[in-house]
From TrEMBL:
Xref: PANTHER family: OLIGOPEPTIDE TRANSPORTER-RELATED (PTHR11654)
The protein's name in its UniProt record: Oligopeptide:H+ symporter
Family: Belongs to the major facilitator superfamily. Proton-dependent oligopeptide transporter (POT/PTR) (TC 2.A.17) family.
Membrane topology, from the record: Multi-pass membrane protein
Domain of life, per lineage: Bacteria
Main location: membrane
Subcellular location: Membrane
Length: 523
């Protein structure tokens, strides 16, 4: 089959209507998300119950949690690579198609190498590369289908896009844990592989309907070029921060023996961005003359958006642990005999089910009501509230952990409450963040900026690994027990709640000063 598309951009005026390409994109996303969440939601159980049996029993849960979060960090790190390939070489369509094929191969490895760590981890790597690589391309590909004549419909489609993600996730969360329990890993991982192949096929079949924006040509005034010029020509504090960022990047690798390579590399990247980013902003004026003023200002606007992305990272550290920490807690709880639950992993189905209900409820009831009351639920206000609400869910999960630590038999149905609260926060942060990231990106930087949105999830995983590394220090854990009377697990839960509240305050303060812009292509 051919994947050739015209080298000329197929950009048409939509005349205020929904693009014809949207059904193919959404159908692809539904199948792809089923495949991803199908394997993701059984990964922790599989690692504990099958692949890590060579470890002593008390170490399996912790090791499974680390493998899970390293995998998730990879999924949300590779958008940097996918966005760069898309923007500079292949364009969004070809990048999505070819990385989807690697994605299919990765699923095949999971099914075939269920008892082989090397083969299984290779499969996880390919899935992280495929899923992560297409992530910024798919979201921005949706945005490319709109122009000024129908941009008002983009919000609805982005929310439908997120709704269908959760449609696939709901059925995957219900069915795949059952498949693992009754049919074993080969079939449980094979079914998501079949769905990923179907997703790729649906995407290819819609190729004639897509608006295809070609990759940007080599640009001497790209984001990276302007930032590099600013740092080279800058002086004073800006130059000093850049040097400190480079030294911090190198220095972070000395932590490899303690944190491992993945966590150390991500920490190095964070240190560099935190220091060199402000250095670029302070030195931008030095880039004028070498680069057009419009592009220099574009870099300034992108740097402001990156601050938003940085402040949202704690939300992801809380959200992704529902598939690791919360499952491990659920395995210590009681499954009601009358319920449809067979494993703790199935509790994750609550999240996508509520998302499907909350998105239309928010649009039809909550947001109109708030506007009538004189409160404008802007994107950044919604995201601020979402981070804080996620923190509340972790207070509840921490209380449940205290009951378990006290020896009480706790029904897993109690987890319905924190799942519900966390999902409310997710809808406010994640659905809003997709649209926000696309709308704030200048045209030639959309793929890159969407990649940084995904990178915020990787940094969220980094916070989890850093906290877990701290919990391995026996002196520290003993001090926690003596000072607070909490178990290590309960302490971590309350810590992450407080972490979210602090960053929600910082996010809200920054949001009050941020001025939103719109970057949709002209009709």
């Amino acid at each position: 089959m051919t994947t050739e598309v015209s080298e000329e951009p197929r950009i048409t005026t939509q005349n205020g209507k929904y693009p014809k390409s949207i059904p193919s994109i959404i159908g692809n996303e539904a199948c792809e998300r089923f495949s991803f969440y199908g394997m993701r939601n059984i990964l922790t159980d599989f690692l504990i119950g099958y692949l890590l049996l060579d470890l002593v029993e008390k170490d399996r849960a912790g090791a499974a949690k680390e493998v899970f979060h390293i995998f998730v960090m990879g999924v949300y790190f590779f958008p940097l690579l996918g966005g760069w390939i898309s923007d500079r070489f292949l364009g969004k369509y070809r990048t999505i198609f070819w990385l989807s094929l690697l994605y299919c191969v990765g699923h095949g490895c999971l099914a075939v190498f269920e008892g082989n760590k090397t083969g299984f981890y290779a499969g996880l790597f390919l899935i992280a590369l495929g899923s992560g690589g297409i992530k910024p391309c798919v979201s921005s590909f949706v945005g490319d289908q709109f122009d000024q004549s129908n941009k008002h419909l983009a919000r609805v489609v982005f929310e439908a896009f997120y709704w269908v993600i959760n449609f696939g996730s709901f059925f995957a969360s219900q069915l795949m844990p059952r498949a693992l329990k009754h049919w074993g890993p080969a079939i449980a991982f094979g079914i998501p592989g079949i769905l990923m192949f179907l997703a790729t096929l649906i995407f290819w079949m819609g190729r004639k309907e897509y608006v295809v924006v070609p990759p940007s040509p080599a640009d001497p005034h790209s984001f990276g070029s302007i930032a590099w010029t600013a740092l080279k020509k800058g002086r004073g504090v800006g130059r000093a921060l850049a040097v400190l960022g480079a030294l911090g990047f190198i220095g972070s690798f000395f932590l490899v023996p303690t944190l491992g390579f993945v966590a150390s590399f991500c920490l190095a990247l964070v240190v560099f961005l935190v220091l060199a980013g402000p250095g670029v902003v302070l030195s931008l004026e030095a880039a004028r003359g070498a680069h057009p003023d419009e592009d220099v200002e574009g870099v300034r606007s992108v740097m402001k958006v990156l601050v938003v992305f940085a402040l949202v990272t704690p939300f992801w550290s809380l959200f992704d642990q529902k598939a690791s920490t919360w499952i491990i807690q659920g395995k210590a709880m009681v499954l009601p005999g009358w319920s449809i639950l067979e494993t703790a992993s199935q509790m994750q189905a609550v999240n996508p089910l509520l998302v499907m209900l909350l998105i239309p409820f928010n649009n039809a009831v909550l947001y109109p009501l708030l506007r009538k009351l004189g409160v404008n639920p802007t994107q950044l206000r919604r995201m601020t509230a979402g981070i804080a609400i996620a923190g509340v869910s972790w207070i509840v999960i921490g209380v449940l952990q205290r009951w378990i630590d006290a020896g009480e038999k706790v029904s897993i149905l109690w987890q319905l409450l924190p799942y519900t609260i966390l999902t409310v926060g997710e809808v406010l942060v994640s659905t809003t963040g997709l649209e926000f990231a696309y709308s704030q990106a200048p045209a030639k930087m959309k793929g890159t900026l969407m990649s940084f949105w995904s990178l915020s999830v990787t940094v969220g995983g980094l916070w989890v690994l850093l906290v877990n590394a701290g919990m391995k220090n026996e002196r520290f854990t003993s001090a926690i027990s003596e000072t607070t009377g909490l178990s290590t697990t309960a302490f971590q839960m309350f810590f992450f709640a407080g972490f979210a509240f602090v960053f929600a305050l910082a996010f809200g303060a920054y949001a009050m000063r941020y001025k939103s812009v719109e970057h949709y292509r002209k009709a």
